[in-house]
Design brief:
single chain, globular
C-alpha cells in the first residue's frame, strides 16, 4: 500500500489507502498469515493508517511516553514468585456515571471521551483508583467500537488516542517538569468487543474484524504499556485482535507492546462461546506465538466471581494446562510442584481475573437492545469480594479459612486481579490492604 499510494497527507490518498488496505485483507486468506514458519513480505501493515504518525494526534494532554522499565520490573516480579500480584483498577464506566457523566445507552462510557467537558472527570476516576492502590489503569476506550456507531477509522484513532492520553496523564505525579515526573502506574490499552460484549454469535467476519481492531491499536499505541483484549466471548474474536496487532507490530519503527487477553464467562465457568478455558488458553498462546505477539497473561472478566471460581477449579484439575502457566494453582503438599524446566511449552502466561458486580447477564442480552442499565447485586461488598473470592484466587483457591491461612503450599494461581463493572475504588482499596498484609505475612 505504501509503495503504490505514497504520501497520505492528502485526504483523497488517505481514503484510497484505507480502501486498498481493506481490499488486501479481504482478498488474502488469513489462514496463511505470516508466522515464524510461514513469513510473507507481500502485505505490510500501515505505518500510520491516516498519516498521523503511529497514533499520534494533536493534543494538549500529557506527552510522556510509556516506561518499558516499569513494565518489565512488574513482569519480572510476577514471574519470580507465585505470591506476587499486580492490582488492576475497577469499573471506570460506572464510576463516571456516579460522578455525573450521563449514562448514554448508545455509546455508554465513550461519552466521557466524545465530550471534552468530561475529560477532567475521567482523569479523576483514573487517579481515584491509583490512590486506592491500583498499579494499573485501563484506558476508557472499551466502547469506541463499530457496534455503537464508531465506524469511521479516523474518528476511532482520534478518540482512542484521547483515551490513551488522558490515562497516561493520570499515572504521573505532577512535579512541574514532565521529564522528571515519576510514573505511578501502568496503562493498559483496552480493546473491547467490536459488536456486543457477551454475544459470540454476533462477531464480525475475521478479516473485517482485523481491520476494525487496527484502528484502536494505532490510536492507543503511543500511550499504553500493554494492550488488553477485554470481555472476549470467543477465541475467534480474540484472534482478530491478535492478527491486527501482529500486522501493526511489523513496522520496524515500533517497539511492540505486550498483550493480555481476557474472556467473559458463563455461569458454568465456560467462555460464552461454550469453549473450555483449558482449551482456550493454549489456543491463544499458540496463535500469539505463530505471529510473534508477546502474550503475557490470560484473564477472566465481566462475569460473576462465582463463574471465575468454576473456571479455576477446571484449571486446577487439568494438569496438562499447568505447563502453559508460570505459576499453576497448587492443591497443597500432596501435589508435586510443576517443573517449568521440564515443560515442553516455551511460552507461559500469568493468570488473572477481575469480576463485575452485576446480576447475571442473560445470553441474549445486547447493549443495543437495552433501555436501562443492568442491575447490581447487593451482596458483593468490598470486604466480601476480598475474603470470599480474590483472597482465595490469589492464595488458596478451594480451601477452608484455617487451612488457607496456615498453608503456604496452597495457592489459587491468579496474580493479576482487580474489578470490572461496579467494582469501586473502595473495593480496590480493600484488595490492596488484603494483598499487602498477606505478602507481609509470607515474608
Amino acid at each position: 500500500c505504501d509503495a503504490v499510494i505514497g504520501d497520505r497527507s492528502c485526504p483523497v490518498r488517505r481514503s484510497v489507502y484505507v480502501y486498498v488496505y481493506a481490499v488486501c485483507l479481504g482478498r488474502r486468506s488469513l489462514a496463511s498469515f505470516p508466522s515464524k514458519s510461514h513469513p510473507s513480505p507481500v502485505i505490510l501493515p500501515p505505518p500510520s493508517m491516516f498519516g498521523m504518525g503511529d497514533g499520534q494526534t494533536e493534543s494538549k494532554h500529557h506527552k510522556t511516553p510509556p516506561s518499558p522499565c516499569l513494565l518489565r520490573r512488574h513482569l519480572a516480579r510476577l514471574k519470580s514468585s507465585p505470591y506476587e500480584t499486580l492490582l488492576l483498577d475497577g469499573g471506570t464506566g460506572e464510576e463516571l456515571f456516579l460522578r455525573g457523566v450521563p449514562d448514554d445507552r448508545k455509546i455508554w462510557s465513550a461519552t466521557a471521551i466524545v465530550h471534552e467537558r468530561y475529560h477532567a472527570i475521567l482523569e479523576e476516576v483514573h487517579r481515584s483508583f491509583i490512590r486506592s492502590g491500583s498499579q494499573v489503569v485501563t484506558t476508557n476506550s472499551y466502547g469506541i467500537v463499530p457496534g455503537v456507531g464508531f465506524n469511521d477509522g479516523k474518528e476511532v484513532i482520534h478518540l482512542t488516542s484521547l483515551a490513551g492520553e488522558i490515562a497516561r496523564k493520570s499515572v504521573f505525579r505532577g512535579s512541574g517538569d514532565i521529564d522528571k515526573e515519576e510514573q505511578q502506574a501502568l496503562v493498559l490499552g483496552s480493546l473491547g468487543p467490536l459488536v456486543e460484549s457477551y454475544r459470540p454469535d454476533l462477531i464480525m467476519d475475521h478479516d473485517e474484524g482485523v481491520l476494525h481492531f487496527a484502528f484502536p491499536i494505532e490510536g492507543l499505541y503511543k500511550h499504553v504499556d500493554m494492550y488488553i483484549i477485554e470481555t472476549s466471548s470467543t477465541t475467534k474474536e480474540a484472534f482478530q485482535a491478535i492478527d491486527a496487532l501482529a500486522f501493526f507490530n511489523r513496522s520496524p519503527s515500533r517497539a511492540p507492546r505486550p498483550l493480555l487477553v481476557s474472556f467473559t464467562l458463563k455461569q458454568n465457568g465456560k467462555i460464552r462461546s461454550d469453549e473450555s478455558v483449558v482449551d482456550a488458553i493454549p489456543a491463544i498462546i499458540k496463535y500469539c506465538d505463530e505471529r510473534d505477539v508477546e502474550i503475557v497473561g490470560v484473564l477472566f472478566n465481566c462475569c460473576e466471581p462465582e463463574a471465575i471460581d468454576k473456571a479455576l477449579v477446571e484449571i486446577q484439575r487439568n494438569k496438562h494446562i499447568h505447563g502453559f502457566l508460570h505459576h499453576p494453582p497448587s492443591a497443597g503438599n500432596d501435589e508435586p510442584e510443576h517443573d517449568e524446566k521440564n515443560s515442553e511449552h516455551n511460552t507461559k502466561v500469568l493468570l488473572g481475573a477481575y469480576a463485575n458486580r452485576l446480576m447475571p447477564v442473560q445470553e441474549d442480552w445486547t447493549i443495543s437492545g437495552s433501555t436501562s442499565p443492568n442491575h447490581f447485586r447487593n451482596d458483593l461488598s468490598p470486604e466480601r469480594y476480598w475474603s470470599d473470592f480474590v483472597r482465595r484466587w490469589c492464595l488458596c483457591h478451594g480451601t477452608g479459612d484455617e487451612e488457607c491461612l496456615s498453608s503456604l503450599q496452597r495457592r489459587g494461581g491468579l496474580q493479576i486481579v482487580g474489578g470490572c463493572c461496579g467494582i469501586t475504588p473502595g473495593h480496590i482499596n480493600v484488595l490492596r490492604n488484603g494483598l499487602s498484609k498477606s505478602n507481609t505475612e509470607k515474608r
